Amino acid sequence: METKILNVDLGERSYPIHIGEDVTASIGSLLADRGIKPGTSLLIVTDRNVAALHLDRIVGLLGQAGYKVGTYIAEPGEATKSLAVLQDIIGTALDTGLDRNSVFIALGGGVIGDLCGFAAASYMRGVRFVQVPTTILAHDSSVGGKVAVNHPKAKNVIGAFYQPEIVIYDTKLLLTLPPRDVRSGLAEVVKHGLIWDEDFTSWCNENAGRLLSLDLEALGEALYFGCKVKAQVVSEDEKENGLRAILNLGHTLGHALEAVAGYGELTHGEAISIGMVGAARLAGKMGYPGDIHTVTKALMEKFQLPVVIDAAYSTDDIMSAMQHDKKFRDGKMVYIVPTAIGKVKIDSSVSADMVRAVVDELKGGE
Amino acid sequence: METKILNVDLGERSYPIHIGEDVTASIGSLLADRGIKPGTSLLIVTDRNVAALHLDRIVGLLGQAGYKVGTYIAEPGEATKSLAVLQDIIGTALDTGLDRNSVFIALGGGVIGDLCGFAAASYMRGVRFVQVPTTILAHDSSVGGKVAVNHPKAKNVIGAFYQPEIVIYDTKLLLTLPPRDVRSGLAEVVKHGLIWDEDFTSWCNENAGRLLSLDLEALGEALYFGCKVKAQVVSEDEKENGLRAILNLGHTLGHALEAVAGYGELTHGEAISIGMVGAARLAGKMGYPGDIHTVTKALMEKFQLPVVIDAAYSTDDIMSAMQHDKKFRDGKMVYIVPTAIGKVKIDSSVSADMVRAVVDELKGGE
Ligand SMILES: NC(=O)c1ccc[n+]([C@@H]2O[C@H](COP(=O)([O-])OP(=O)(O)OC[C@H]3O[C@@H](n4cnc5c(N)ncnc54)[C@H](O)[C@@H]3O)[C@@H](O)[C@H]2O)c1
Ligand SMILES: NC(=O)c1ccc[n+]([C@@H]2O[C@H](COP(=O)([O-])OP(=O)(O)OC[C@H]3O[C@@H](n4cnc5c(N)ncnc54)[C@H](O)[C@@H]3O)[C@@H](O)[C@H]2O)c1
Ligand SMILES: [Zn+2]
Ligand SMILES: [Zn+2]
């Protein structure tokens, strides 16, 4: 596949995303083209899984290109997105003599991207950073500039809006992904179709098999499209004041399910798959065409993603997890509702009772 | 004294500084004028010393003005500027239900301003904040938007550039300051004269007695001028790419002395007092007029600030602390050198040997 280049348009903070098979092979020249001169000190932040599979090659390539390369290897998993690990990364940055001209490189999935991005935003009040995403889900997290770590009491609540210099997205690195992370990441790809483009949604439907089997051509297309939708939305609303909320299709219920299941039980993609089916069902109740629900549900099933809520989870718990999300007011809540395939609206007065009915139906497995 | 209002000109991030006796009495309407509507949730971050003296009154005033007020009381001292305390503040913010529309209020000296400012910059990726400085030194820290916490290995190395909505600087709150903090803060006031304005330097010399005895009229003048110089420099160089370095007069040596003495032994103002005398002495060696040194030294003595280095500190340690500061290269270093009273230049090739000679002379107490 040819490399595809997408520009995220954010004025002087604009940056390119390079997507393609083996794009990391030219990582050195890509950095140089973005003004990161050979000789610059880099700190690669990654996790143990990714390090075992891909770190040596990237370190070798950057070394050959004349960069000074340090590494920080974190434990895999959401718990790594913490201030404690951030402090540890900054310690490594200091020990290896990184200064204001140095560059952080996030080599990993969304956990590493969010963590390393916030470390870069904070180190000496901000140094440059580069995203080298290694998961499918990271097509979502690497675009948009939201970086953060978690607080023990809430996810992503300590962070910044901070844009990378470049995103280098090598589809070949995805070949080592565990199948569950493949499916989970594809849920966000499909979401980008459902909120923005009916044709791309059909394309996803037709190409589900190729995507699940990691056909690099199909993956490149899908990531390109997913990044493009996200980039368009973000360009229009960098600081999340309005439009950007449409990216949360399936997330109100999805987040609640993740919390109630206990983090890690359901992957993020699995949770929002159920969430998107729920939103489609809600749309039906609100009078939008019934095929939104049938198409959405069939699509998720095609991607081998869950579409029902485990009956063991209490509806009250799920509702109160949504309440905690601060999205309720006077029995009404803000909800992203699909109005057709490829279209959604932000509805700020959805009845909580109607949402509860949807939750119960999803538990019934209808 | 009449309230003085100064505008810090930073495009859409511009903000006003209100300086005067009892300006906090109208804190509610000042907030409302800046678009912070009554009903908004506020979190006041302060330290135990300041809380004991001033917190109840401020909470009362804000409550009367219709705000929802939470408080976080930290331990006094530099150790409070840590990620651990930041995490604790964020926990309180979550517990009290602060959302993206809420406002953090820094009530305290530079420690609280830096800490609370970074908490505000990071909480939910950035909420508004307000500075209510309670030390003289905070005229420096509350202007310019540098916020940060410390890493165990280095000061101020985790932070952001983040501007407040307004600075409310009530000279009356300064009446409770311990004398050593008064003198220390005045060292930075005098520095702003030495780098920028000969007339103001003379004014400081003539009014040292009034300032040391906390005459509110004189204090208001001094803080206004100090903030004005800082604001002008910062407006021209928000992200510290060039000019802003002149604010570091006395700081290269000053920081080294703080480190070698052990933090807390010398206050920051005491350390930079010696640093400014050192810079003046260096200027003499470099051929600039000798009165720079005599005037600077006399001025510091008038403010009861130290002008010599304790002979117990090793010159080697001091030199290597400066080296650690990354300001050396090939026996040369960047130094802010006074070229006249009220004028400095950034000299990037000062000989390290000459600096060493100055350190030795300062230890001799000449
Ligand atoms: N910033 C944003 O806008 C945004 C958007 C969506 C999600 N996120 C965040 O992203 C995170 C989830 O991202 P994720 O699903 O990529 O998680 P992740 O980074 O934890 O990666 C998932 C797992 O895959 C492993 N892995 C990564 N790349 C691999 C590869 N190439 N081969 C084999 N194993 C590999 C990892 O070690 C990990 O165990 C969450 O923390 C979420 O909050 C952020
Ligand atoms: N952000 C910047 O641009 C900048 C510039 C200069 C200094 N700083 C930072 O400022 C800090 C030093 O500031 P500081 O000297 O104000 O320290 P501080 O905040 O620790 O205050 C000094 C002491 O005075 C007490 N105090 C404060 N107000 C009082 C009052 N009204 N009455 C009685 N006691 C009071 C405090 O409890 C503390 O013990 C350092 O951390 C330094 O890094 C930041
Ligand atoms: Zn998501
Ligand atoms: Zn200072």
From TrEMBL, chains A, B:
<protein>
    <submittedName>
        <fullName>3-dehydroquinate synthase</fullName>
        <ecNumber>4.2.3.4</ecNumber>
    </submittedName>
</protein>
<keyword id="KW-0456">Lyase</keyword>
